[in-house]
Automatic annotation (TrEMBL):
This is Dihydroorotate dehydrogenase (quinone). FMN binds at A67, G68, F69, D70, K71, T91, N143, N176, K221, T249, G271, G300, Y321, T322. It is a peripheral membrane protein. The active site is at S179. Substrate binds at K71, N116, R117, M118, G119, F120, N176, N181, N250, T251. CDD domains: DHOD_2_like (cd04738). The keyword rRNA-binding does not apply. Belongs to the dihydroorotate dehydrogenase family. Type 2 subfamily.
Length: 341
């Protein structure tokens, strides 16, 4: 029903407006008694064979919602009803920021893709924490970044503020230095600044985890546009800083083979056009590191077969974003049912 009735209507309107409308609609209908139960019964697949233990956390299934969809932690409970094993919020920054000027979100219908140049629009980390305080059992990842006005030489301070503020309210952290929509952010992927940033967060992690004697898992989200040499640097950095894993991949700045009219828009491209490159990066990291660390695979998952391909390439978990928009919530169920087969 989603692909043949709901999606065609949604795709008649501006994608950012549709996103906000959908959030409000889901929030309202879930307040109606019995609706949450119906949604869960339609989309959730509960089976112990789907459970995964990764970087010390127990996931009820390996299919998560990627960062960027629920930036401000407004809908994590309701979204979990659609069968996700975990929800990643953010990217959050220390201070609220409006992001880049509109229009900044574009569908590429002929390519099953999206280009966005949102620019870390969010209400700030403190506001998100107020919502996370009501969490009742949803496994949450906290994706953190820096404010646009913060120069790269002071970026560590922004990441540390987010880390401290979110520490008690998320299950794992994701360090986002790979978005193409914040000026100069990707320069932080270079070996020296990235090592410094991750080492600083790990030191803070040790200090804040002292009473529990267990560090919060820290992952690094990387771009699909890195060269093999840069990916080898990532493997070395993960080893040196002892972070827990990598999310591969973020959006791409490449535009190869696109057909849609919006293909020339600047920003990060997600969806089907990034499927193969994301899988290549996953396979490269898994093979070259001898599977030394967990990988969350994200990028162009539009079917159960796409998800399984990423898992077979070396991913331990997968995340959806654009595929969830194009294929609807049934995609989560399809992947979980396929994994059981």
């Amino acid at each position: 029903m989603y692909k043949f009735l709901i999606r065609p209507i949604f795709f008649l309107f501006d994608p950012e407006r549709v996103h906000h409308f959908t959030f409000k609609f889901i929030k309202i209908i879930n307040k109606i008694p019995g609706v949450s139960f119906i949604i869960k019964s339609l989309y959730q697949v509960n089976d112990p064979r789907l459970e995964r233990e990764v970087f010390g956390l127990k996931f009820k299934n390996p299919v998560g919602l990627a960062a960027g969809f629920d930036k401000d932690a407004r809908l994590f409970t309701e979204l979990s009803n659609y069968g996700f094993g975990f929800i990643e919020i953010g990217t959050l920054t220390p201070k609220p920021q409006p992001g880049n000027p509109k229009k900044r979100l574009f569908r590429l219908k002929e390519d099953n893709g999206i280009i966005n140049r949102m620019g870390f629009n969010n209400g700030g980390v403190e506001e998100a924490v107020q919502r996370l305080k009501s969490n009742k059992g949803v496994l949450i990842g906290g994706n953190i970044g820096k404010n646009k006005v913060t120069p790269n030489e002071k970026a560590v301070d922004d990441y540390e503020i987010c880390f401290r503020t979110l520490f008690d309210y998320v299950d794992y952290f994701v360090v986002n230095v790979s978005s193409p929509n914040t000026p100069n952010l990707r320069e932080l992927q270079d070996k020296e600044p990235l090592t410094k940033l991750l080492a600083s967060l790990q030191q803070l992690n040790k200090e804040m985890s002292a009473s529990e004697n267990r560090l919060k898992p820290v992952l690094l989200k990387i771009a699909p546009d890195l060269t093999d040499e840069q990916l080898m640097d990532i493997i070395e950095i993960v080893k040196d800083t002892k972070i827990d894993g990598v999310i591969a991949t973020n959006t791409t700045i490449a535009r190869d083979g696109l057909k849609s009219a919006n293909k020339t828009e600047t920003g990060g491209l997600s969806g089907k056009p990034v499927t193969n490159r994301s899988t290549e990066v996953i396979r490269f990291l898994a093979e070259k590191s001898n599977k030394a660390f967990p990988i969350i695979g994200v990028g162009g998952i539009h079917s159960a077969a796409d998800a399984i391909e990423k898992l077979e390439a070396g991913a331990d978990l997968v995340q959806l974003y654009t595929g969830f928009i194009y294929e609807g919530p049934k995609l989560v169920k399809d992947i979980n049912k396929a994994l059981l087969k």
